[in-house]
Structures are given as C-alpha cells and as structure tokens.
Amino acid sequence: MRVAVDVGGTFTDFVVYDGGKVETYKLLSTPRQPEVAVIEGLRRLRGVREILHASTIGTNALLGQVGLEPPPVALFTTEGFRDVIEIGRQNRPRLYDLYFEKPRQLVPRDMRFEVRERVGPDGTVILPVDEGQVEALAEAAAGRGAAAAALSFLHSYLNPTNEAIAAAVLRRRFEYVSASHEVSPEPREYERTSTAVVNAALMPIVGRYLRSLSGYVEGIGARLYVMSSSGGLITVDEAARRPVQLVESGPAGGVVAAAELARALSITRAVSFDMGGTTAKAGTIVGYEPSITAEYEVGGEAHYGRLVKGTGYPVRFPFIDLAEVSAGGGTIVWRDRGGALRVGPTSAGADPGPACYGRGGSVPTITDANAVLGRLPPVLGGGITLDLDAAWRAMSGLGDPVDVAWDAVRLANMEMARAVRLVTVERGLDPADFALIAFGGAGPQHAAELAEELGISRVVVPPGPGVFTALGMLMADMKFEARMSYPGDLEGGFKRLEESLAWADPTYYVRLADVRYVGQGWELMVPVGRPASLDSVRERFEERHQAAYGFRMDRPVEVVTIRVFAVSVRERPRLPDPPAEGEPRPGRRKVYFGEWIETPVYRRDELPLGYALRGPAIVEEASSTVVVPPGWRATVKNMGVLELTR
Q1: What does the pLDDT read at residue 384?
Q2: How many Å separate Cα 521 from the centre of its chain?
Q3: pLDDT at 301 (0 to 100)
Q4: d(CA 312, CA 299)
Q5: Half-sphere exposure of 32 (CA within 13 A, CB side)
Q6: 133 contacts: CB under 8 Å, gap ≥ 6
Q7: pTM for the whole thing?
Q8: Least enclosed by CB within 10 Å: which of 95, 248, 356, 542?
Q9: 280-310 residue pLDDT tens
Q10: 520: closest CA among 540, 539, 545, 537?
C-alpha cells in the first residue's frame, strides 16, 4: 500500500494505491499544526508501506503563519558584504507608491557577521579564512539567540574552500547551518545569499515537522518521501538539509500528474490548471515534460499571476514554472469603494471557509457563487453539507445574488486566464495549441468557460480531480539535483556532476544549462544533449530565445550554470478503465448559464466507457464537480478521463 498526502490551504488530500485499486478521501487541514491532519488521515489505514508527502509548510512559515514563525538566524558573510541581503537589487515594485515597504528582513543587521576572508572572481583564495575569528563570531551569534546560521562568502560558487572551512566551525556550535555553496552554488551574490538565508530559516521548522511525521511513519513500519518543487521525490534527509526546495512542493505534484496523464493520452502540449480552495495555478507541459525555472521569489506579491520582483525572498533553485493567482474556491468576493465587484486576493481559507460550509463564515466566496448558480451538489468531498441559504444570504449583501454570483464566476475566470497566458503567451506559446488539463476541487467547475476565454477547444478532466495533485506524487520519480557554475569543460563538468549523484543509483540523468548572450543580465534554461558541446547549446538557446523574445542576436553565448538531475524511475499506478456497459440515470436541477436551464446531473461513477453527453450538464463525484456548459460535449475516455470538446 502506497499513500500520497497533499497538505493544502483548505483540505489535506489522501490517495491510497493498493494492488491496482485507487481510493481517495479528504480531511480539513490543520494549518497551525499541519502534521495533525496528516497523521489523523493515516490512522485510518492499515498496512501502509510507503508515504509520499507534499506540504506548504515552507511558504507558510516565511509568510509568518502563527505557530510557524522562523527562528532567529545569523548570517556570516565576507567582510564588507553584510548588507547585501538588505540592499538587494534596488527593485521598486511599485514605482510611485511612497509607502511601499520591503519584506521584513529574515536576518536583522545586528545578526549579520563579517568574516575576514576573500576569494577572487577567478576562484583564487586571496585571503584564507581565520577559524579562530569564525569561532568567536559564532559564539557571539549564539549569545544573541541565533538558532540557525547562514553562510555566504564572495565567489564561493567558484571555490568553496573558505566557506567549507567556516561551515565546519559553525557546525560545532549550531545544529542548523546553511552554506551557500551547498544550497545554491551560482553567481549573483544577493540571490545566493538570500537562498542560503531562506534555507537556514526553514531548517529548524521543516526539520521539526519532518521528525514529528517521520516518528509516526517509522512507528508503523513505512518509508517517507517528500515532493520537491522541481517535480521529483526526495528523501527526508535531503529535504531536511535543503528545505528550500520544498517551497512549492504541493503544486509541483499536480503538474507531474498532468504530465503523466498527457503522456498516457499522447497530448504533446498541455496546460496544467489546478484550482483549489485558495489559489489557482497554471503550468505548461511540452513534449510530456513540465517547464522548469531556476528562480522563485518566496512569499512575494503577485500582480495578475506574475510574481513582482522585490516583494519576497529570492531563491535560486529549480522550480516547476507556475503562475499563481488568488482565485480559489474560498476567494472572497467584494465591492470596492467605487462599487465595482472584485474577486480576491483574500481567501476565507479552511476555517471558517465559505459561507455555504456552515462553519461560521459569512463573507461571499467563489464557492458560494457556484452554489447559488446551482453548480454544486448538496454534499461536498470531506463530508461538508452545503448550507445554500447561507450562500444566498452572503451573496445578497452585494446585490442581486444571482447577478453577483454570475459576475463573480466570470471575473474569476478572467483572473485565471491571465495565469494561463503568463505560462503560454509570455513564453512564446499559443494557448490555442494546448489542451487544458483541469483538476483541483474547483478546477473542473470553471475549466470549460476558462478554455473559451483562452481559445482552447479541448479540456481533460482526470478521475478524482480534487485529489489529483496527491495522485501526482504516486506518478513521480526520485529526482536529485546538482549544479556547477562557469564550467571550463562543458562535457567534463556534466560528467563530474553525474558522478556526484551516482549514489542515487539513477535510471538516467537530465542535463540542463543556464545560457545567455555575452553581456546579457539573465539566462534561459535549455536542455543539453550528449556529448555536450557549445555549438549544440547555442543552437537550442537561440531557438528558445527566438520563441521567448522574437529575435536572435549576433553575439557569442556563454554557459553560466550547468545542472544535472539524477532520475530514478518508479512504478506508476495504472488507473483502471470504467465499465464498458451501463446506462446512467441523471437527476435534474436548474443551473444558471446566463439564464436558468433545467440541467441533467450525472454521477461520474455511473458513466460507462465511451459514453457521450451534451451540455448543459453537471457531472458530480466525491472530490469535484464538472460543469459542461451549453455548446460543449463530454466523452468518457480510457482511465475514466472525461474529455470536453467544443
């Protein structure tokens, strides 16, 4: 028995795979102690041998969630560079906002310590580190209450000798030490230092959380693996050592699942669309592989799905490329001072949740809007009985409840369309060439209308869409990463990285390179073949540059960083096909599609293989509801996939 657990903002999802049989269930999350809901759900099972886990604990901690505040962190850096972490890049996200404030410093100035050492830009050690000074500074930091230490020396990505010596000294004093050459061996002093600091801040929190969870898992004789932000599973030890790679672990599972479903259905271009209780996320899948980015801004603000640089904490680590907007089922609907209807960014969360949950919530949300429009069943997954009267009352506070609900759904769709355009149009891709793979508890409710907004004509809804992200972990491979900057010998550098990851006993290696034209400030990540050569890298880089920016330059290219993923392929669950025979008996209720229409309501588990139905229609199941608008057709495909076409 293998169990995948995805801790979300509203629900904690469980997918159980046992001998070819897949079962799912949900529990309300326990945000202040996320392991409580996880362990409660696992206690329902017997005979578990493997647990795969994704969590938002890293992001929540950096956002200051009560009970998860980062402990005091000390930063040790090269003499003269203590303020790099605060100076940053001088980005001003809102140019004319006189009241903008940068995110709070994870390391206050009195907890930053300068070390006399120096490595040159060519990697030469100009001034060796003084171990005695580091010991004295470590004692001072501990005396000021530091619980973890971050270490970032100048040019340590080229030669980590001084940093490694200092790290050994600090580890005699601190349990948690984050050295930049171990976490992010890349140029750009600010981003590398920020990554080391974020990692240090998360080490005690994630370490305690994983120890608590591991204690229970070991007690039942099972193994625990954790989903990383790059879309692969890692060991608990690796997660505790570099917790910075868990920041987007939950959303990554959904994209991995969508990529595997795209492969099974031979869909070479797909958009992964995940709409849950708090946010909606979109990512692209080309050639069955999710797009990867090398940098993320943790805890930053989003403007129409685009992360605003300078509002969060930069992290240089591989992440699945996702755009995220505040448009989930729990997103609050409101009116601004001018009377205009607005959606988000605030969410009602899991507690109290939407008004229709009957848990004390009174503000209207997107879920309440769908309830008013007749799109939701009387009972949701997780055993929540809807209070329709509460939903109508909440919407009535903003005007005519039906008009408000209809406008709110359309506004949410427009907001989510922006997220999809960010990962398609802004990457040089046409969304009309893609299929939309929709999941999350709320995703299938909006998918068809969202597709219309984007010009997409094919929507795929997997079985169990509300727990599909958790299912993605059962489809993920083990995946470990290593990188090197400015390799003199490209092929030799890749081989050294592969040798450093040989302990993982991988099935194969994936090679990537961050490349730019000489003189450019930022890079594009491109795949690299075997053997690696600068000519082949240039060719792939210029193709990517042309697609992203619409032009090429007559300049030489340079490889800034190379990275390798060691991938160990794991057995994937085979989703069963639905029965080939059967005659569903739909119920009926009035549903609003711009007007009230008497609409057939189907149970998804009653639909046989090959069954086709025309919209308007509603298809209900335990974890989600599929809305088939007028003008759309839905067909049951292999593995129980529901395919919607215009």
Answers
A1: 77
A2: 26
A3: 62
A4: 5
A5: 3
A6: 115, 116
A7: 0.84
A8: 95
A9: 889 999 989 898 888 887 766 665 555 666 6
A10: 545
Mean pLDDT for all residues in the chain: 89
What are the residue ranges of helices labelled H in 91-230? 131-143, 161-170, 180-183, 189-219
Measured distance CA(249)–CA(226) in Å, rounded: 8
Q: Say if CB 180 and CB 153 are below 8 A apart.
A: yes
Identify which of 235, 253, 217 has the alpha carbon closest to the alpha carbon of residue 55.
253
Find out whether 277 and 442 touch, Cβ atoms under 8 Å: yes
pLDDT by residue (tens digit) across 260-281?
899 989 999 999 999 987 788 8
C-beta of residue 260 within 8 angstroms of C-beta of residue 474: no
DSSP H or E segment with residue 590? strand 587-592
What pLDDT does 323 receive? 83
Beta-bridge mates of residue 45:
none
Q: Which of 22-26, 374-378, 402-406, 498-502 shows the lowest per-residue confidence on average (mean pLDDT)? A: 22-26
Separation CA 190–CA 17 (nearest Å): 44
Handedness of CA 325, 326, 329, 333 (dihedral sign): negative
Which two structure tokens, joined as six digits, stand for 292?
Answer: 């990867």
Whether the CB-CB separation of 3 and 12 falls below 8 Å is answered with no
Cα 602 from Cα 583, distance rounded (Å): 11
Whether 353 contacts 361, CB under 8 Å: yes
Give the separation between CA 274 and CA 467, rounded to whole angstroms. 10
Domains located in the chain, CATH noted: 2-65+206-246 (3.30.420.40), 73-204 (no CATH), 482-568 (no CATH), 587-645 (no CATH)
Length of the chain: 646
- Give the separation between CA 497 and CA 565, rounded to whole angstroms: 9
Q: Do 612 and 629 meet the contact criterion of CB atoms below 8 Å apart?
A: no
d(CA 460, CA 416): 17
Mean pLDDT of 84-109: 82
Of 220, 295, 200, 297, which Cα lies nearest the Cα of 521? 295
Q: Give pLDDT, residue 66.
A: 46
Mean pLDDT on 202-221? 90
Model confidence pLDDT, tens digit, residues 579-605 = 988 889 999 999 999 999 999 999 999
Higher-confidence residue of 233 and 70: namely 233
Work out whether strand 21-28 and strand 112-115 pair parallel, antiparallel, or are unpaired.
unpaired
For helices 131-143 and 161-170, the axis angle rounded to 10 degrees is 40
User: If we measure between CA atoms, which residue out of 124, 88, 92, 131 comes closest to residue 106?
Assistant: 88
Strand locations in 120-175 (E) = 125-127, 148-152
Helices (H) and strands (E) in the chain, counts: 16, 37
Interval 127-148 mean pLDDT:
96
Beta carbons of 304 and 326 less than 8 angstroms apart: no
Report the distance separating Cα 182 and Cα 241, nearest Å: 9
Q: What is the pLDDT of residues 515-554, one digit of tens each?
A: 999 999 889 999 999 999 999 999 999 998 998 888 999 9
Identity of residue 95: L
Which residue type is seen at 251?
P
Query: If DSSP codes are grouped into helix, strand and coil, which group holds residue 247?
Result: coil
List pLDDT tens digits, range 38-62: 999 999 998 899 999 987 777 766 6
Please tell me whether residue 566 adopts helix, strand or coil conformation: strand
Ramachandran angles phi, psi of 516, nearest 5° = -150, 160
567 CA to centre of own chain: 19
